[in-house]
Design goal:
The structure holds 2 protein chains of 2 kinds. Chain A starts with 14 loop residues before the first strand and ends with a strand. By secondary structure, chain A is α/β, with parallel strands linked by helices. The longest helix of chain A is centred in the N-terminal third of the chain and has 20 residues. A 7-stranded mixed beta sheet of chain A has the order 11-10-9-12-13-15-14. In chain A, strands 1-2-4-3 form a 4-stranded antiparallel beta sheet, with no helix packed on it. A two-stranded antiparallel sheet of chain A has the order 5-8. Helix content of chain A is 37%, strand content 18%. Chain B contains 3 helices and no strands. Chain B is an all-alpha fold. Classes of the chains: A alpha/beta, B mainly alpha. Chains A and B meet through helix 3, helix 4, helix 7 and helix 8 of A and helix 1, helix 2 and helix 3 of B.
């Protein structure tokens, strides 16, 4: 029976998430009864759901997974694709942080408070971050400090500050530090000038010192009267001001200017867009993964046709630009994420089961691999056959573009190295992919020399 | 009372960290006063300008704070 319990759902005694017959449920334990009833009756639940800040749920008659502990069984609304903070761009992490603080403020207005502030409690529905952990709340008693303060600083404030002031790539530290980035490490990596910023100085620098100084000391956490409600609201407000003050400008990385320097004539580019649209319309996929999506020009063809689309790219600047556009257009079907295809998100956490590897969160109905394969083969030395094999594990249908060596993009990749890629030509490409896929269409793109394929995975 | 206390510590499954607790008490005391003034000023301003803060209108923009 315990096999159905979600492997990441064990820390909180209030309840846990489990699967049954392919559906997701949440068991609320009797231990949490008072807080759950408060959530539902105080108006906080309706307030959060109405404003699209938290997933809705239904109370069901479904039998509990562990009935001896159970109070209720809920059926929560699901988000379609699970992503993790180390896959988010700066804007997404900032949005998730601001949502958490906004929810805490709202909770206080209804006599409740968040008992944790983990970035893993937030997911994305299109461009909007949303809280998925319904059991995150507990009754607020004035005088109590915010128990989730440390976690908020480590999960949100620290990585955002590092991305803004040191290097945007430091969000990858979240892959190693699953409970947020330790503040003493953050302090060391941030530039000196951040000490003079009140918010960062207090919530990161002084906070790190306080942690070290009081480490291992017992602090009475059960007596009230320590932090008044107004003081707590002041703290939350200051955290919000601090997060809002953090910015990262996406430019200066090699991909942001990618489309300026291509071989395409405008005509060929439009031709390619037309054919991508044609292929997607033919297959009518529900879920599309666009690999190497850059700023999402082609991803938007898929999302525009109604497919839930994930736009993966290795470059944080491209993903950031894509996300900013999603926010501007209030995009519902597109989720941009940062991903290095040669080193995709692995399985992490306790027993390597808490956070899933990318491949465990698939598969997609269709993969788009446009202007991608030559980067994997030539810049990363991955043989065509291995690329085809991996793509076939990710999804049933494939739209893939072959870019010949004569193309200026490929010439640029070969400029600084010896051309050892004797098998990289159209026949070699078709042979490698033909082992895993059957080709439905092979379409030349205008005068560019590129070929666009629609392929379907072979059944074995 | 004892049962209430033990339930509280049980629900608070997260380790808040001793240093974090102490810092928070200090900071919140510092910030509470400034916040009270901020709220007070907003109320005063609100009396003089027509209130345009509708929950549904500003919701999505405010949520991202950008």
């Amino acid at each position: 029976m315990e096999n159905n319990v979600h492997p990441a759902s064990f820390r909180d005694p209030s309840g846990f998430v489990f699967w049954r017959d392919g559906k997701l449920f949440r068991q609320v334990n009797r231990l949490y009864q008072k807080d759950y009833d408060c959530l539902m009756q105080s108006g906080l639940y309706s307030s959060l759901v109405q404003d699209g800040l938290m997933v809705a749920h239904e109370e069901t008659k479904e039998p509990a997974e562990l009935p001896e502990l159970a109070y209720r069984v809920l059926k929560p609304e699901t988000v379609g694709f699970i992503s993790y903070p180390y896959e988010w761009c700066f804007g997404q992490l900032k949005g998730a942080a601001l949502l958490t603080l906004h929810i805490q403020r709202l909770a206080l207005e209804h006599g409740m408070t968040l008992k944790d502030a983990s970035a893993y409690n937030i997911q994305f529905l299109g461009y909007q971050p949303i809280l998925i952990d319904t059991l995150s709340f507990e009754e607020y008693h004035e005088g109590e400090p915010w128990v989730a303060y440390r976690q908020f600083c480590q999960h949100f404030l620290a990585p955002l500050a590092l991305m803004a002031f040191t290097d945007v790539r430091l969000s990858q530290l979240l892959r190693v530090c699953l409970d947020g980035i330790p503040l003493d490490l953050t302090r060391r990596l941030l530039p000196w000038k951040t000490r003079w910023n009140f918010g960062l100085g207090a919530h990161i620098h002084v906070h790190a010192l306080a942690q070290k100084h009081y480490a291992g000391q017992r602090v009475s956490t059960t007596t009230g009267g320590k932090v008044s409600k107004m003081a707590l609201q002041g703290l939350i407000d200051n955290l919000e001001v601090t997060v809002k003050s953090l910015f990262w400008k996406p430019s200066g990385t090699e991909w942001a200017d990618y489309y300026q320097a291509t071989n395409y004539s405008d005509r060929a580019f439009e031709d390619k867009k037309l054919w991508v649209r044609e292929f997607i319309s033919r297959v009518h996929p529900s879920m599309v993964w666009d690999l190497g999506a850059n700023t999402g020009i082609f991803s938007r063809i898929a999302s525009g046709l109604g497919a839930k689309t994930i736009a993966f790219d290795i470059d944080p600047a491209a993903v950031e630009l894509n996300y900013q556009e999603c926010v501007r257009t209030k995009e519902k079907n597109l989720l941009p994420l940062v991903l290095d295809l040669t080193n995709p998100s692995p399985a992490l956490g306790w027993a390597n089961t808490e956070r899933q590897a990318l491949i465990e969160r698939g598969e997609a109905d269709m993969i788009l691999a446009l202007a991608l394969v030559h980067h994997l083969t030539i810049s990363n030395n991955v043989p065509l056959q291995l690329i085809a094999k991996y793509f076939a594990r990710l999804g049933e249908w494939l739209v893939v573009e072959f870019v010949p060596k004569s193309d200026s993009q490929v010439q640029r990749l070969l400029a600084s190295r010896k051309d050892i890629f004797t098998e990289y030509h159209q026949q070699g490409f078709e042979y490698a992919f033909g082992q895993f896929y059957e080709t439905h269409v092979a379409q030349s793109i205008g005068d560019s020399g590129r070929v666009l394929y629609l392929m379907r995975r072979r059944k074995y | 009372m004892k049962i209430l206390l033990s339930t509280f510590t049980l629900m608070m499954y997260l380790d808040p960290g001793s240093g974090s607790f102490i810092l928070q008490i200090l900071l919140a005391a510092l910030l509470g006063g400034a916040y009270a003034i901020k709220v007070y000023w907003k109320k005063i301003k609100g009396l003089f300008s027509s209130s345009q803060e509708r929950k549904d209108g500003t919701q999505t923009e405010q949520r991202h704070g950008e």
